[in-house]
């Protein structure tokens, strides 16, 4: 029988939730290099002071809303419109919070409040992939360590990448477009979630409806697609239950 | 200063959405809501991804859409084969650049 004590110390350390969180977070940061630098360069091109546009990274910590907010601000939009549009784009985080909450039940209250700041698409995708997977033992402390490690790694990585994009954006060669970096990054977050017919139905309907509703203002197309996809997932699950 | 204040307000509003259900995790989400939650991730991420892949510049055009869809397909295949997200992403980007280059050569 293999016990914890009989394993090699490095193997134990490598398997710990903290190290897995750091490693998975680092992998996502690596995958975010094109998107992060492209977004930083786009922020720098809006005309706002570079430091101010970069401050959206620690303040908002979410690429899509950052771009919307900084572009609208640079365009002279009223503050109410900028706030409303950015919050609509970020409304999915409300649902992420509800989705993650059952797994955070055993976490100390202060860490639930602190950890919420780190909740963003890649961290949510990593956490849900692990907590719902075979590697998870259901132990709250391990889940918390994994979540905080992955989230903190992503936060540091995102701040550095967008900062580099703001500073170096003008040096990116024109023949090296990065416009598809964002959707491909979200695609690689989506792929591990496609397990079963209900997930495929949710993704297919969500994507098609969002495409058809892409002309709606204030990010409403995204919300329409998300709503339709969730309903499709529930229906598909009911049919095959 | 006005711009910074707006960003701070958005950051606070965003944090309130992030913390809303996590703060009361002990109670758990309402039963009706709980049915919908497992499908949220795939639905939201697909709603973000698909429109930009099909219409990279806001409209469907063969020389823009086809390389993007080929890149997405390559991304998916690389992920299925390797299970490594960075490999899938950089492979997809490489395919996209190749596709754009091919269209540029063919239209010259």
Tally of individual helices of chain A: 13
Proportion of residues in β-strands of chain B = under 5%
**What is the string of helix and strand elements of chain B?**
HHHHH
What is the global morphology of chain A?
Answer: globular
Stretches of chain A where pLDDT is under 50 for at least 5 consecutive residues are 1-13
The most extensive interface, with participating residues per chain, is: A-B, 97 and 68 residues
Rg of chain A (CA only): 19 Å
Number of helices of chain B: 5
Most strands sheet of chain A: none
* Class from helix and strand fractions of chain B: mainly alpha
Helix-strand layout with pairing:
The complex is a heterodimer of chains A (241) and B (108).
Chain A: H1 9-15, H2 17-31, H3 33-44, H4 50-60, H5 63-74, H6 79-89, H7 92-100, H8 109-116, H9 121-131, H10 140-168, H11 181-190, H12 197-212, H13 220-239
Helix pairs in contact in A: 2-10, 3-5, 3-10, 4-5, 4-10, 5-6, 9-10, 12-13
Chain B: H1 2-22, H2 31-34, H3 40-54, H4 62-82, H5 85-106
Helix pairs in contact in B: 4-5
Question: Key features?
Answer:
heterodimer, A: 241 residues, mainly alpha, 2 domains, 71% helix, B: 0% strand
Describe the overall structure.
The complex is a heterodimer of chains A (241) and B (108). Chain A has two domains: 8-175, no CATH class; 194-241. Chain A is built from 13 helices and no strands. Chain A has helices at 9-15, 17-31, 33-44, 50-60, 63-74, 79-89, 92-100, 109-116, 121-131, 140-168, 181-190, 197-212, 220-239. In chain A, helix 5 (63-74) packs antiparallel against helix 6 (79-89) and helix 9 packs antiparallel against helix 10. The radius of gyration of chain A is 19 Å and the shape is globular. Chain A starts with 8 loop residues before the first helix and ends with a helix. By secondary structure, chain B is an all-alpha fold. In chain B, 77% of the residues lie in helices and 0% in strands. Chain B has helices at residues 2-22, 31-34, 40-54, 62-82, 85-106. At the A-B interface, helix 2, helix 4, helix 5, helix 6 and helix 7 of A face helix 1, helix 3, helix 4 and helix 5 of B.
């Amino acid at each position: 029988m293999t016990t914890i004590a009989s394993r090699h110390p490095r193997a134990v350390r490598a398997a710990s939730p903290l190290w897995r969180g750091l490693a998975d977070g680092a992998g996502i940061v690596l995958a975010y290099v094109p998107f992060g630098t492209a977004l930083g360069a786009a922020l720098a091109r809006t005309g706002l002071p570079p430091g101010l546009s970069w401050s959206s990274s620690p303040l908002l910590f979410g690429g899509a809303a950052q771009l919307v907010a900084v572009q609208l601000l640079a365009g002279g939009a009223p503050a109410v419109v900028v706030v409303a549009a950015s919050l609509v784009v970020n409304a999915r985080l409300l649902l992420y919070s509800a989705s993650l909450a059952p797994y955070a039940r055993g976490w100390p209250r202060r860490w639930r409040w602190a950890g919420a700041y780190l909740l963003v698409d890649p961290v949510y995708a990593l956490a849900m992939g692990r907590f719902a997977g075979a590697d998870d033992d259901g132990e709250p402390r391990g889940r918390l360590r994994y979540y905080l490690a992955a989230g903190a790694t992503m936060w540091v990585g995102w701040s550095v990448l967008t900062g580099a994009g703001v500073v170096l954006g003008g040096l990116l060669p024109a023949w090296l477009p990065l416009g598809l970096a964002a959707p491909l990054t979200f695609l690689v977050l989506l792929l591990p979630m496609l397990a079963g017919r209900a997930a495929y139905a949710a993704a297919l309907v969500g994507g098609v409806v969002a495409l058809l509703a892409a002309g709606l203002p204030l990010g409403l197309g995204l919300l329409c697609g998300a709503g339709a996809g969730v309903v499709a997932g529930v229906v598909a699950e009911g049919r095959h239950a | 200063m006005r711009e910074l204040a707006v960003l701070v307000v958005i950051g606070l509003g965003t944090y309130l959405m992030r913390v809303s259900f996590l703060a009361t995790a002990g109670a758990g989400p309402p039963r009706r809501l709980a049915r919908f939650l497992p499908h949220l991730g795939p639905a939201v991420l697909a709603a973000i991804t698909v429109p930009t892949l099909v219409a990279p510049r806001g409209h469907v055009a063969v020389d823009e859409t086809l390389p993007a869809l080929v890149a997405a397909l390559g991304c998916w295949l690389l992920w299925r084969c390797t299970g490594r997200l960075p490999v899938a992403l950089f492979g997809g980007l490489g395919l996209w650049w190749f596709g754009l280059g091919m269209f540029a050569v063919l239209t010259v």
